[in-house]
Amino acid sequence: MTTIAEKHLRSVIPKPRDSDEEDPKVELNEEGEVLNIEAVTERLATDLKLTEFALKDIGEGEGGEGGDRTDYDGDGMAKKYAEAKTHEWRSLLESYTFMNLAKGGKDGSLIGVNTIVDLACGEGHYTRSLRNAFPRATRVVGVDIAEEMIAMAKEKEKNKPIGVKYIVQDVKEEAGAKDEERFDLATAAWLLVYCKSVAELNEMCKAVANYVKPGGRFLTIITNPQMAFDSEGTPTTVLPGETQTNVLSRYAKYGFTVTVPSETPQEGDPFTWSIKTSKGPLVIVNYYLPRCAYKESLEKAGFEKIKFHPFELDPKSEGFGKNFAISPFSHLEDADSNDKKEFYQEFLDYPPALCIECWKSGGGK
């Protein structure tokens, strides 16, 4: 039987290209808009022909059971995932915003953080950043269901010890924490996006809440549900009976695209990210749930003061510089286009992701 994910990927895979064919250069107009959007979109979609590997990556993930989950123990998946973290936008927008919030934001109001848990920690990218941001923390733990991810995290800790403990563990199944085991700060970048239904989201938020002390804080990143209503997508070719989708190519110049439903999204509809890496595209399937569902599920789990934050650009970033991490897009280095804010303006205007922060009730905050 063909899975939803297989249909979704097949809908954006054109004819195979010659492996020696050069990558198309992204051509921008004075407003920073991509002029040759069809060529770039076709190339990125063609790269998905590598889905002999990519489809293996769509297995069971943190979201639970099912054949449409992203399997981070798949063939080379962990290494692709780690490389995808090196894209410039991941540091200048995602990490800047996430870590700025983790440290208390502009007012620096977050104090008394002695224990930290990073759920769905992957290869430990944010776990290490949190350890460095809170040098006085007495305990920092990274948790992930993928053995290969945790193996990479442990290897980095072994090579450069900074005091992080990593555990292979399902967030939902092992969430019965005792009071003394709960944490002041829990983070989970890109965890809730694997929930395919409100029921799954309720269950996951309840599990996350069991890791957090009363008065403690939870911080996460989700795919922006609003992308499902982006009218600028490029329609894909589908087979009879399959769902029409749109490729949001406005993000191609940043090294990725997102494929979303072309009609009003329904609960659990797939959002497929394709992120450029040297080892082939990293294909990750997230699922649509409305923004209000996240708020309501977190409230049911015992969280309050729930806030949504779009990514912000690190104000310290200056000039453009050559970005090897998003090759073949590194040719965008241009003496006449060296303003990062200008380059990332479309990303900021149409944010593909959001941060959510909230507090566990009962702490008197």
TrEMBL record:
InterPro entries: Methyltransf_25, SAM-dependent_MTases_sf. GO terms for molecular function: methyltransferase activity. It comes from Bathycoccus prasinos. Residues 19-29 have a biased composition (Acidic residues). Keywords: Methyltransferase, Transferase. SUPFAM superfamilies: S-adenosyl-L-methionine-dependent methyltransferases. One of its GO terms (biological process) is methylation. The keyword Cell wall biogenesis/degradation does not apply. This is Methylase. Residues 1-29 are annotated as: Disordered. Pfam families: Methyltransf_25 (PF13649). Residues 116-216 form the Methyltransferase domain.
